[in-house]
Design a protein that fits this description.
heterodimer; A: 498 residues; alpha/beta; TIM Barrel; 2 domains; three-stranded antiparallel β-sheet; 16 strands; globular; B: 142 residues; four-stranded antiparallel β-sheet; elongated
């Protein structure tokens, strides 16, 4: 008995499909990137977006099942899977939950360094009136602990915070007591130039599990040029401090950050090699922030975004080469963006958050009790621009801070989902809004994306990373996946089934 | 002066162009979004006519300066403008077709916050968990 097959038309599948929300970007002459509402992406040949939108795809085309599986289209044989999409969308925005996690305490404006890019109105060493008082410290800790977040990071900054070490000890003591009482986890970091590091301070940090973060701008000639101090020996002081701190606290408790200046731009390789020489396994190729004295000394540090991108690109190439040679070194900015591109999670990096991380994920408490949406907002205040002052720990409640006109304005203009230029950008879910930056550089929190350094820089960096992902270089893929999953190359490769 | 492109007139200084854009193909929203991306270099003026949109675009800087050492003629901008216009129209079409479903996804994602008067259809929880497709067996140690 024969049983005939159904006619061929029965196997063709539906010819009509509906679009799900997505965005697209032309990567090069041959390739487009499609990105769905949850940040999942697909490389496709140039012209594919137009064909999808104009309903020129057929169910028997090779790409059709992938477009369905990746939530770019749906048809009568599938559903929009709204619950799945909603769950993915919520995961991408998980950084919103739990309220402010990073609390910056500026315990003094005093500092011995006079860096050209210094982001605060630094004061000389004997200006004690620029230290945080006990009353301010107590109220600031109280406000910090009222945040619903179960995990709080308390970061001491300055000036040079070690010049007000008694204040640090007082704050650590009451913050730890409060955290235990309220069942919160507390991480403590001191950001210091290490010039005033003593054995007593190191011992205290060890007992209280405090991490140290310092500035290392590169080899001696760059570091000392960027960070002048009496004696001109900042590099020596900092590197000696790093070694002492590592011996006392362990390598994992000492981190370094670099700031890019005009001088740095010419020397990406030397800067990275200095980090390797100092046995660091992470480096953050950061652009200079346009705040504080940096904005005023624009003739010194006002380099073009394109010059920074060339610096970043050369630096990333060198870092990948170092990894190829067996030295594990992670570039942090790349790691942050790759996590957004390659994983379902969002990240806690304030500059690349939407809704803005200003206030929502970070608060800065100045020595005088003023509360700012970010440390950069505080730097603007040192230049007499109080746009982002949310209130004071001495006179305002936490509710006042989060209903202040300044905070409401930040939120209204801090969502790239509704900003001109960003609303239909394919990189929206990987990027941020940064209303503080746009206010500082363009006088407008919304910002003008065609002339925004923030937009241009991130657009170029993301295009570059997508090009590397697209390149098919399996070594780069392994390194990137290792960075995303916090594994070194050997661990990463061992985890791949043979 | 006519241009290499149909429906485009360029002035004698090559600093300004009038482009007639077919209303049946392009929407006002798409044209304005495209113009936005050139607003650092070009000014634009849009007028609606019976059959078409009349878009005038011109150079913001017409002669070289220290900050703009090279100045492109308006003709050189046109291919990029047309490509951006096409992309903008496609983006408008995606948004027109998917606006309601996008709102629903976001509303469902944040339904827990209680901002909606009525719960959106479906479940807030992970649909795989809620349909018991996957169950994680737990054992209690004694």
């Amino acid at each position: 008995m024969s049983r005939p097959f159904a006619p061929q038309s029965a196997f063709v599948g539906p010819s009509d499909y509906q679009l799900l929300p997505f965005r697209f970007h032309r990567l090069d002459q041959q390739t487009e990137i499609l990105v769905n509402e949850c940040g999942e992406f697909l490389f496709v040949p140039e012209g594919t977006a137009r064909k999808i939108i104009q309903k020129e795809f057929r169910a028997n085309s090779e790409l059709y099942p992938t477009l369905k599986a990746k939530h770019f289209i749906y048809d009568e044989s599938s559903s929009p899977l709204l619950d799945v999409l909603a769950a993915k969308y919520r995961t991408k925005f998980s950084f919103i939950y739990g309220s402010t996690k990073l609390h910056i305490f500026v315990v003094t404006l005093r500092c011995d360094h006079s860096c050209q890019y210094c982001q605060v109105s630094r004061q000389t060493l004997n200006q004690g009136q620029f230290d945080m008082s006990r009353d301010v410290a107590t109220s600031a800790v109280d406000m910090m602990l009222q945040c619903p977040s179960k995990h709080i990071t308390l970061e001491f900054q300055g000036g040079e915070p070690l010049l007000a070490f008694d204040t640090i000890k007082y704050i650590v003591s009451i913050a730890k007591d409060g955290a235990v009482r309220l069942g919160k986890e507390l991480d403590i970091v001191i950001t210091s130039n290490l010039a005033f590091l003593t054995d007593d301070i190191l011992n205290y940090c060890k007992v209280h599990e405090i991490k140290l973060s310092t500035s290392l701008d590169g080899p001696e000639f760059i570091h000392n040029s960027n960070r002048p101090r009496p004696g001109g020996d900042s590099y020596k002081v900092t590197t000696e401090g790093i070694n002492r701190a590592r011996r006392a606290l362990g390598n994992g408790r000492v981190a370094a950050l670099m700031t890019t200046t005009q001088l740095s731009l010419q020397h990406p390789i030397e800067i990275i090699d200095e980090y390797v020489r100092q046995s660091f396994h992470t480096i953050f190729l950061r652009p200079i922030s346009p705040y504080g004295f940096a904005l005023r000394s624009k003739h010194k540090t006002g380099y073009e975004t394109d010059a920074f991108f060339e610096f970043y690109k050369a630096g990333l190439d060198h870092i990948l080469e170092l990894n190829r040679r067996g030295y594990n070194l992670v570039e942090i900015y790349t790691q942050i963006i790759l996590r957004k591109i390659l994983t379902p999670e969002g990240t806690g990096y304030v500059d690349l958050q939407s809704p803005t991380g200003a206030g929502l994920n970070v608060l800065a408490y100045n020595y005088d009790g003023s509360v700012y949406a970010t440390d950069e907002a505080r730097m603007l205040a040192e230049m007499k621009d109080y746009t982002f002052k949310l209130g004071s720990v001495l006179t305002n409640s936490r509710a006042d801070i989060f209903t202040s006109p300044a905070f409401v304005a930040l939120l209204q203009q801090g969502c790239n989902q509704s900003l001109p230029g960003c609303s239909d950008c394919a990189f929206q879910s990987y990027c941020g809004a940064d209303p503080v930056y746009h206010h500082a550089t363009q006088g407008d929190m919304t910002g003008h994306r065609p002339t925004s350094g923030f937009c241009r820089r991130n657009m170029k960096v993301m295009e570059h990373l997508f090009s590397l992902l697209r390149s098919g270089d399996s070594f780069i893929q392994d390194v990137f996946w290792g960075w995303v999953t916090d594994r070194n190359l050997a661990e990463m490769r061992a985890s791949i089934p043979q | 002066m006519t241009s290499a492109f149909e429906h485009v007139e360029v002035d004698a200084e090559h600093s300004k162009a009038l482009v007639c854009i077919d209303k049946k193909i392009y929407s006002k929203a798409a044209i304005l979004r495209a113009c936005y991306w050139f607003s650092g270099d070009l000014w634009s003026d849009l007028k609606e006519k019976d059959e078409c949109f009349a878009l005038t675009v011109g150079l913001l800087v017409t002669s070289p300066t220290l900050s703009h050492p090279t100045v492109k003629k308006i003709d050189e901008w046109l291919p990029q403008i047309f490509n951006t216009l096409s992309d903008s129209q496609l983006r408008v079409e995606i948004q027109a077709e998917t606006a309601s479903i996008r709102e629903l996804i976001i509303a469902k994602a944040f339904a827990e916050s209680g901002i909606l008067e009525d719960s959106p259809p479906g479940t807030f929880a992970d649909p795989v968990e809620s349909t018991n497709l996957v169950k994680i067996a737990t054992t209690t140690s004694k």
